[in-house]
Specification:
Number of strands of chain A: 4
Largest sheet of chain B: 2 strands, antiparallel
Strand content of chain B: under 5%
Structural class of chain A: mainly alpha
Largest interface: A-B, 49 and 51 residues
Helix content of chain B: 55-70%
Radius of gyration of chain A: 19 Å
Number of strands of chain B: 2
Distance between the termini of chain A: 40 Å
Order of helices and strands of chain B: HHHHHHHHHHHHHEEHH
Helix content of chain A: over 70%
Largest sheet of chain A: 2 strands, antiparallel
Distance between the termini of chain B: 63 Å
Strand order of the largest sheet of chain B: 1-2
Structural class of chain B: mainly alpha
Oligomer: heterodimer
Strand order of the largest sheet of chain A: 1-4
Chain lengths: 316, 376
């Protein structure tokens, strides 16, 4: 227990935690969207994320960037970032839809028990991660230094870097956009209707299968954006990069109230913060212990997460 | 003239089950025949190490890249874990994603009590550590159970997953649990041949397989009887509708704790077997993917059915082992083993969503569900 360390590092831990939490929040959206509509844990979502990291790296690779190249000029960096984000979001979105088509839709047609969905999702997760593992010879792939971390804001011992600001702002913008999409647009209304009651929604003329595919696509897009932020922050990726991050993101989704979009944001930020506080209090290796104990304690008092579950809002 | 009314005679009640297929046939046989079938099946199971000498298909069954008795022993502890997890997931309907935690608790208890590397310096023999390991695993099941069993479904799943992660992280980081360095010199099970060589050596895994098989038989007898008892009926009621069960007077938390404790016991026993054969263990054995694999085995085999759990547990160990050292075309199949394995999982679940050998009652539940939802 290192309380003075915690107090001393409170500022830096908070900033680092918020940046990490923003990534978790975007990642957690995929779990929460699918859970809100299908009431299933989409186990393959972590691989959707991992595919996104590679999509960004390969896109940058096409332009001749690798981990040894120099940082390009500001204009070029913005262009590369936009391209990387676009590619990662698209590829992740397509992967997520493929997972839906291969692993979920055939089972939905057969009225399979919920556990069967979980197992096909696990199967899909193994297939994707092993496919990438075999294709990359299980090597770590480094990230081109697109953003040189530089302190922008500075008070006390707290430094906020440009990358952290980018991550937090981008995540908040995407969450806001998604929230508006689900709550304000016609397609979003269809998604909420299917979440409330699939059969009634179908009777009212909502194309159920299309709404479900849309949910997977949205989750994949968000995971792709999270993937770009992750590679910029961490600096490399591997075929199994999604797994542990996926567990943290799923924990975030559950903590905030799975099926609840705003819950994913709250849960993600809390997990990010407490991971960092826990790391400075007990040592880095115990940070996941802190998050899981926090999860257990919160679930004991609020059994369906901090904000409760609701994508359709009418659900108890 | 009086007409005697010809009343239809009450049909004789047919007490024998009239199902179709192998199971129906088995149920209709008289008791001695059934006993004989079981004995023959057991004899075949015990003879599995020698399957390679059967001409024709024998060599096809054997694994190439890993010696066959070792592969069989691996299958035996996977089956043991699948049986234990089946109690939690299949019987009581509680989704447990962190089952490897109990396996770890069992194995670490053995290691701490027996290994020369342990800080306890107790140097117990393997046999003596078994009851302690099982008790500690059971206790850990109860400790995990009491704060969390009021949670439902997927919330329980993430908490169990967290529990396994906590155990793994402690094993990784705590200096007394030695992390990656692990514990060496774990004693093997006791016993010597008449010429003085130990039965449970390091070269031949066949005796370990027989030991594992015997443990499996005992565990099957135990949980089968439990499933048919008051406890088993309570599990069934909880699985089908927890609220209804509670209203009818089933003490849901108590019986869910039972399921957790028994699952934990069997998981701990799996850990004991693993430690006894390997002689060495470290924290890398207890990754989360392992629990997920076991869960896949249980559901793939047929959740809620003992035969299904056995088949599923054996398959998840056998498929990757069989692919080891194989060439498909000019590709090394071992490199692709998990890829092929993942594809196999998806295909099996799409074509048999209720599992390879489904529990009869679960299949009926599935039919009911299909009737309830509107055709699409």
């Amino acid at each position: 227990m290192n309380f003075s360390g915690l107090i001393h590092d409170l500022g830096p831990s908070t900033v680092a935690g918020l940046a990490q939490g923003a990534i978790y929040a975007l990642f957690a959206l995929g779990y929460t969207l699918v859970y809100g509509v299908l009431r299933l844990i989409n186990f393959a979502h972590s691989e959707v994320f991992m595919v996104g990291t590679y999509a960004a790296l390969i896109t940058w690779g096409i332009f001749g960037l690798d981990q040894n190249s120099a940082t390009p000029g500001t204009g070029a960096v913005i262009g590369y970032l936009a391209l990387g984000i676009l590619a990662a979001a698209l590829i992740s979105g397509v992967t997520a839809i493929c997972v839906e088509l291969v692993a979920y839709r055939p089972l939905r047609r057969r009225n399979a028990p919920p556990l069967a969905f979980l197992i096909t999702a696990i199967g899909a997760s193994i297939v994707i991660s092993e496919f990438v593992g075999v294709a990359t010879h299980r090597n770590i792939r480094g990230v081109p230094p697109l953003i040189h971390p530089a302190t922008v804001v500075h008070f006390g011992n707290t430094n906020i870097t440009n990358l952290q600001i980018l991550i937090i702002v981008l995540a908040l913008v995407m969450m806001l956009a998604l929230d508006r999409f689900v709550n304000r647009t016609r397609l979003g209304r269809g998604v909420r209707a299917v979440a409330q009651n699939p059969d009634s929604a179908a009777l009212m003329g909502v194309n159920k299968d299309r709404a479900i595919s849309l949910v997977f696509l949205l989750g994949g897009l968000m995971a792709g954006i999270a993937a770009v932020m992750y590679v910029l922050k961490i600096g490399d990726t591997r075929f199994d990069a999604g797994f542990n991050l996926g567990i943290a993101a799923f924990t975030a989704a559950v903590l905030g109230g799975i099926g609840n979009l705003r819950g994913a944001l709250v849960g993600g930020l809390i997990i990010g913060l407490f991971e960092n506080y826990g790391a400075s209090l007990f040592g880095t290796q115990y940070r996941n212990v802190v998050t899981f104990i926090l999860l257990i304690v919160i679930l004991m008092f609020r059994p369906s997460g901090i904000l409760g579950e609701s994508l359709g809002r009418a659900r108890a | 003239m009086t007409t005697v009314e010809q009343r239809p005679r009450p049909r004789q009640v047919n007490r024998r089950p009239n199902g179709r297929g192998v199971r129906g046939w088995f149920g209709r046989q008289p008791r001695p025949v059934r006993a004989a079938v079981v004995l023959v099946a057991l004899a075949v199971a015990y003879a599995l190490p020698y399957v390679g000498s059967v001409p024709g298909i024998g060599p096809q069954i054997e694994t190439q890249g890993i010696d066959w008795p070792s592969a069989l022993f691996n299958m035996s502890y996977y089956v043991l874990l699948a049986l234990g997890l089946n109690v939690v997931v299949g019987f009581a309907g509680l989704l447990d994603l962190g089952y490897v935690g109990f396996f770890a608790v069992g194995a670490y208890t053995v290691a701490l009590l027996t290994s020369p590397d342990s800080d306890l310096k107790t140097h117990w023999p393997w046999l003596l550590s078994i009851p302690v390991a099982i008790a500690v695993a059971m206790l850990s099941g109860l400790i995990l159970g009491w704060p969390t069993l009021r949670l439902r479904g997927d919330y329980l799943a993430i908490v169990t997953l967290g529990f396994a992660e906590i155990i793994r992280i402690f094993a990784d980081s705590n200096t007394h649990l030695r992390g990656d360095r692990g514990f060496g010199g774990l004693p093997h099970p006791p016993g010597k041949y008449s010429d003085g060589t130990p039965i449970f050596g390091v070269r031949d895994a066949t005796p370990y397989f027989w030991l594992g098989l015997s443990v499996i038989v005992v565990v099957i007898l135990g949980i089968r009887n439990l499933d048919r008892s008051r406890v088993g009926r309570s599990w069934l009621a909880i699985r089908e509708d927890e609220e209804a069960a509670a209203i009818m007077g089933v003490r849901t938390v108590k019986y869910k704790l039972w399921a957790f404790a028994i699952g934990a016991c069997v998981g701990g026993l799996g850990g004991v077997m693993f430690a006894g054969q390997n002689g060495f263990m470290n924290s890398a054995t207890f990754v989360l993917q392992f629990s997920i694999l076991i869960l896949a085995g249980v559901v793939m085999g047929g959740s809620g059915n003992i035969a299904g759990a056995i088949l599923g547990g054996a398959l998840i160990s056998y498929i990757p082992d069989r692919l080891r050292g194989q060439q498909i075309g000019n590709l090394d199949a071992y490199e692709y083993r998990f890829l092929l394995f993942g594809l196999a999982i998806i295909l099996i679940m799409i074509f048999r969503p209720q599992g390879l050998i489904p529990s009869r009652r679960r299949a009926m539940e599935l039919k009911d569900r299909a009737k309830e939802v509107a055709p699409q």
